Amino acid sequence: MDKVKAVQRFFRDFTFPRETLRKLGGLQTVLPKRTRWNTQYSCLENFAKNHTIYLDTAKDVKAKTPPEISDILTDLYFYQRVTDLMKKMAPVTCAITKTLGQDLEKLDLAIFQTANLRNAWIKPSLPLFALHIYSIREGLPTIFRERGQVWLAKKNPLYESVQLKLEAGDSNYFVKRLMNKEILRGELALTSSQWWDIMGSQMENKLPIGFAKLAKELMMLPASTSGMERCFSTMGIIISKTRNRIEIEKASKLCMIYRTLNCGRLEDKDIDLS
Predict the structure, then answer these.
(1) How high is the pLDDT of residue 274?
(2) What angle do CA 27, 89, 261 make, to 5 degrees?
(3) Which residue pairs, CB below 8 angstroms and at least 24 apart, start in 92-97?
(4) How far apart, in whole angstroms, are the C-alpha atoms of residue 272 and residue 129?
(5) Which of 2, 89, 104, 217 is 20 to 30 Å from the Cα of 98, by its Cα?
């Protein structure tokens, strides 16, 4: 591999060989990268396809080809070894490509599902804040408060009336002692879902049917998709770092794993062909 890279660097770094390669219709030189799978195979393939042009260019006096480069290019046995190595590497590169393709499909699906979750969460998150006993007086922007009220009104017009009474702090409508600051603040304060659970049980006949249950369920939803987004971001960082640590010498292991996972399918194909 070092000899192949030496030839590739010569035709990449020096002006006359590089321009001659371009004029004769050769492929742009490819060098392998330690953290990018299949570039070793691409480098060998590039060398094999450009070999004839490399050989003709190296013979030109203007190229000032070093003796060690000329020896590599004129050694037909070396060229044969390169092509043989490519044949051995082909199944590995194919397995890696398929594995990466499957991973990308899974990633696309994950992104699609995340978008669905985001769309599902945005609307309920607005009435969540509108009914949240602690944040209701913090002052949602008017546009968001109105969207939350519209969402509730579509469920039941009476739901919006309850929300407006809660926003006004109407202790004549709600259980008065549950509206006390001592209940709503401090170390022993109830969570918003606990508050609605207790309020619903004590105002069972006063609240619209299903309202307390809906409010409690809303309080248990995530307020935004930021938590999910952070999970995917962390997962992406971990996957990238792990991938970059895996170099070409581990590709054979990946190929073996891929074949093992698909051995049943491959054996079935062999049986069908026999």
Answers:
(1) 35
(2) 130
(3) 92/41, 92/251, 92/252, 92/254, 92/255, 93/37, 93/38, 93/41, 93/251, 95/254, 95/255, 95/258, 95/259, 96/37, 96/38, 96/251, 96/254, 96/255, 97/38
(4) 62
(5) 2
Contact by Cβ (8 Å): 5, 43: yes
pLDDT tens readout for residues 176-194: 777 776 666 655 567 777 8
Q: What is the rounded distance in angstroms from the CA atom of residue 207 to the CA atom of residue 43?
A: 73
Rounded to an integer, what distance in angstroms lies between the CA atom of residue 118 and that of residue 114? 6
Q: Model pTM?
A: 0.38
**pLDDT at position 187, please?**
53
**Residues 6+ positions from 51 with CB-CB distance below 8 Å:** 73, 79
Q: pLDDT of 148-176, one tens digit each?
A: 778 888 888 888 888 888 877 777 787 77
Burial, 211: exposed, middle or buried (Cβ in 10 Å; 0-12, 13-18, 19+)?
Answer: buried
